[in-house]
Amino acid sequence: MALTDGDIVAVYTGFNSRFTPQPAMFGVYKLHLASRDVLWMSGLQTTGISAGTSLDKIADPAAAGQATIGKVVQIAPPTVSGVDVQEPSAALQGIAVSAYSRQRNGAGAEVEFVLVALFGGGWYEALTSVITVLDDR
Amino acid sequence: MAIGAGDIVTPSRTSADYTTGYQAQPLQIGVCDAVGVGDNRDVLWADGRLEMNIDEDALDALSGGVSQTLKLAKVVELAINPNLALQPSPAYDGVVLGQFRRNPAGAGTLGPDRVQVKLLNSRAYYELPARDANQLDDR
Q1: Among B31, B49, B77, B101, which residue's beta carbon has the most beta carbons within 10 A?
Q2: pTM
């Protein structure tokens, strides 16, 4: 499988969790006369993208990711073998506003993310596995 | 080695004259979409812009940090004041958003771990060597 017309896509950015100046830009993919084109939700159209691997296909996540939407969440530090577990920092809490999976070039493994609007400003796209829902909030 | 298609890149910030890590915006990330003639690289930035024919000397390839990490998602103090007699100010603490290494022009020489920090008391960002970001255990 690879990307097909009408797929919702985002730019492949490689990192598994990353802070972003704005939510990941989504667009609609179209293969037009052998040219990979994307009409982004901002209205900008990018034409002539050379490699399908520069794009991720966006899809709905599994239930665990969906369940975070609209809740206050905590982004947890990674666990490191042989090192004491670190307390999560209150500096990385926010509202989970969206959840989705990324699949590079529409092929291969799907990786699930939650998009968090941080209380301190800015956005964080985090692996679902590092998100904890704060039940009472 | 050079920057190749599929590499994650960011604008280079290697300068002999400007070494301070302050920046007004988070790290700008893109993917090298194509290798052009000579040093030319096409980069698809995360906001969807496709910029053609960027000289690869203006780009750094990014790789994950070596020590992933006791600092990611934790609050740190920035030990950056060149006057070592001064204590870092708690007003200048920040939270670590990412840890990575830069490879200037993809030339094969990965630098030391660096962290991107969002300052807690202002809407500003700092990129600095990970060794200069001191983790505050209880935060």
Answers
A1: B31
A2: 0.86
